[in-house]
Structure formats: C-alpha cells, structure tokens
Amino acid sequence: MSVVATIRGLLSGGRKAQVGEAARHAKRAMRRDMRGHFSFSQIVFAVAIVFLFLPIVVLVVYSFNDGAGMNWTGFSLRWYRQMLETSELWRAFGNSLIIAASSAITATVIGTIGAIGVNWYRFRLRAYVQTISFLPMILPEIIIGVSLAVFFAAINVPLGLFTIFVAHTTFNLPFVFLMVMARLDEFDFSIIEAAQDLGASEAQTLMRVTVPVCMPGIVAGLLTAITLSLEDFVITFFVAGPGSSTLPIFIFSAIMRRGGLTPVISALSVVMIAGTILLCFALRKFLKYIAAK
Predict the structure, then answer these.
(1) Residue of 173, 172, 185, 176 lying closest to 120 (CA atoms)
(2) 3-class SS of residue 288
(3) CA-to-CA distance for 223 and 242, rounded, in angstroms?
(4) Are the beta carbons of 186 and 291 closer than 8 angstroms?
(5) Strands, E, within 190-236: which ranges?
(6) How confident is residue 10, by pLDDT bands cut at 50, 70 and 90?
(7) What pTM, to 2 d.p., does this model score?
C-alpha cells in the first residue's frame, strides 16, 4: 500500500507542478503583453469608447454646474430643482409615458397575433405579408412621418395624442413581429401535435402552449416598442398637434428657444440615463427567468 500511495503522490505532485508551470507561463505572457505596445484593435476600441462616453461624462458633470455656461462656477443642484418645478416638462413626460405604454401594448398584441398566424398557417399571400410588414423598418422615418401626416389630413383626423398613438403603433409593429417570428422559428411543433393528441382545442393550444413558448420574444418586443416610442422624434414631429407634445418634442423646442442645450435639459438627460441603467439591470434577471422557463 505504501508503494501505491507513493506512486499516487508522485503523479499528483507532477500534475500540480505542470499546472503551476502553465500558470507561471501565462502570467509571464500577460506581463509581456502589458509591457508591450497596444494592438491596433485595442487602440480602436479605446478610441470608440472615449468617443461614445466622453460626451455623456461631460453632460453629467455640467448638469451639477451652478452656472448656465461651460465655465465651472461651483457644485449645485439648482437645475435639478428647476427641472422638478417645470410643469410643461412633466406634462410632456406624461404624454410620452401614455403613448409609449398604449402603443407598445397594442403593437405587441397585434404583432404577436400576426407572427403566430403567419408562422402557423400557410396561405397564398404569406410571403407578401411578411415583406410588407418589414417596410416601416426599412423606410426612413421622415417618409413615414410625412405619409402619416398626409393620411390624417386626407381623412380629416385632427393631430393630437391619438394620431401619435397610431403612428407609434405603426412603426413598432414590425419590431414585435420580427422578434416573435424569431422565437417561433426555434419552436418545436411536435409540442402542438402532442397537445392536440391530448385533446386540447386550438384556442387552448394557443394560450397554454404557443404563447408561453413565445413569451421571451413577446416581452422583448414590448420593451423594444416602449423604448422606440419614448425616444422617437421625427415621426412624432409630423403627427403631433397643439398641446400634445411628447418629451423629445419638448426637448427640441427648449433647445430651439434657447439656441442650445439648457442646463435643465442636461439634468433631465442625466435622470433619464440613470433611470435607463437601473431599468436595464432590473429587467435583466427577469428576462433571463422568462427565457429559462
């Protein structure tokens, strides 16, 4: 037994020595790479990161500036207080939330039903329906905005929150449709056959099998639609009426009135950036939980 134990000890010691030697080689190679010159890809990556995030850093810093210009005069929260006291801003923010929620939900319902129908059934115009549904994603937003404005004028519909809702639902539909279709392409239709063999009706199969399987794509489409609706400016600019401005329209109007970015808009941008980051972290685990089910 002592001989066997000795052999095992030598083998384990040899393996540990090999692992330790490999680790030392890896550390030496890493130190050489750190001492050496940066590669071209690393330089491009660093430049891209600075180009993307440096304006945001400047925006965050100067939102706490006591002065209205670019000269630092001291730390202050005056612009955040003024932001909270601007009733027009919050009215526009409320309009944005109403439009984003209603149009996203409507687009998600219609887009999900359309994706399931196109994927489930075979009909003559199926390819044309798929092609037409992607047109709002391909066309420039200014063309969609002008077309909708002409359409509403032709049918004598006054511009307001309703026309913004219709416009946002229209350009959100293809994104929901595409995400649900991508989920359905990975769908195992033998599950539907098994459900039907067990006596499930078509409606029961849809609500208890198909929709739960598509839920990650549905949720992703809903969140994408909300995001696109909140940040849209071009289409909203053409279909918004008096007293129905959304947050992007309010920001554009404030910049045009002052001839540049105001400190209040900078404070609002910082709040929106922080809110977006918190929302992304909060929804990350939720989406993973849904995808795992």
Answers:
(1) 185
(2) helix
(3) 28
(4) no
(5) none
(6) very low
(7) 0.73
CA dihedral sign, ordered 89, 93, 98, 102: positive
Q: Which residues contact 245 (CB under 8 A, 6 or more apart)?
A: 92, 95, 253
Amino acid letter, residue 42 = Q
- pLDDT tens digits for 116-151? 888 777 777 777 777 777 777 788 888 888 999 999
pLDDT at 101 over 80: yes
CB under 8 A, 24+ apart: contacts of 58-61: 59/266, 59/269, 59/270, 60/270, 60/273
Q: Where do the domains of the chain lie?
A: 1-36, 84-292
Q: Which residue has the higher pLDDT, 193 or 164?
A: 164
DSSP code for 75: B
The pair of structure tokens assigned to 122 is 């075979």
pLDDT per residue as tens digits for the range 21-39: 655 655 665 555 555 466 7
Whose tokens are 């922080």? That residue is 274
For the domain 84-292, what is the CATH superfamily, name and number? MetI-like (1.10.3720.10)
Q: Which of 116, 123, 133 is nearest to 184 (CA)?
A: 116
